[in-house]
Specification:
By secondary structure, the chain is mainly alpha-helical. It has eight helices and four strands; from the N terminus they run H-H-H-H-H-H-H-E-E-H-E-E. The strands form two sheets. The chain has a two-stranded antiparallel sheet. A two-stranded parallel ribbon has the order 2-4. Helix 1 packs across helix 2, helix 2 packs antiparallel against helix 3 and helix 3 crosses helix 4.
Length: 203
């Protein structure tokens, strides 16, 4: 039987703060919760029922705490598996992203599956892209550069046309398209050191 009150005040405060941290990993806070309940005098069986676990696991967590202290809380003994893509495939993916600037992980996943025959989840694609030095952000808008000389020439030609028209002539205007005056940059994946720009107006 585990005696209550085995945690000192500082440790208990630290575990309580961890429990209240909304950004902390759930499996870490679950361990902290178990230690706090045991320290309150709960049995391993009661604690296990509250956390939907088995009592042997709760008992083992207490043993690990006694042996390693709080450093054990975030130890899970897991090592990620090696990447399924070869070095050449990863290099090809990096070049493709730099050339095409894909907007979503869905597009990236489709390319990987079509080119390499490997299927990744969205979270796995994000981890892969970050490991390859990629990031997602909106490109910087660059103002369009208008040519004052061409504008002046067009205005002169237009005025000349109006001033020299015959009585049976008329100027007709057509608006076949409606280009956006200010382009809105869309986010995309690209290498961290790669600059990304788009024009913000039509010239």
């Amino acid at each position: 039987m585990i005696r209550a009150g085995f945690l000192d005040e500082a440790t208990r405060n630290e575990l309580t703060a961890l429990m209240r941290d909304g950004k902390a990993e759930s499996r870490v806070t679950r361990r902290a919760n178990a230690l706090l309940l045991l320290d309150d005098g709960w049995s391993c069986e009661k604690t296990a029922r509250a956390l939907y676990m088995d009592d042997d696991t709760i008992r083992y967590w207490h043993e690990l705490y006694q042996e390693k202290g709080l450093t054990w809380l975030a130890e899970f003994g897991y090592k990620g598996r090696s990447c399924e893509m070869t070095a050449a495939q990863q290099e090809a993916l990096t070049k493709w992203i730099s050339d095409t600037l894909p907007r979503t992980t869905l597009v990236v996943g489709e390319w990987i599956e079509k080119t390499c025959g490997i299927s990744y989840t969205r979270s796995a694609i994000i981890k892969l892209l970050k490991r390859l030095g990629m990031e997602y952000r909106k490109p910087k808008a660059v103002p369009g550069k208008l040519d004052p000389a061409k504008q002046a020439a067009f205005i002169k030609a237009y005025n000349d046309l109006l001033n020299n028209m015959a009585d049976d002539e008329a100027v007709m205007f057509a608006d076949a398209v409606h280009p956006t005056h200010e382009v809105r940059p869309a986010g995309c994946w690209h290498e961290r050191h790669q600059s990304c720009h788009c024009p913000d107006q039509w010239s």
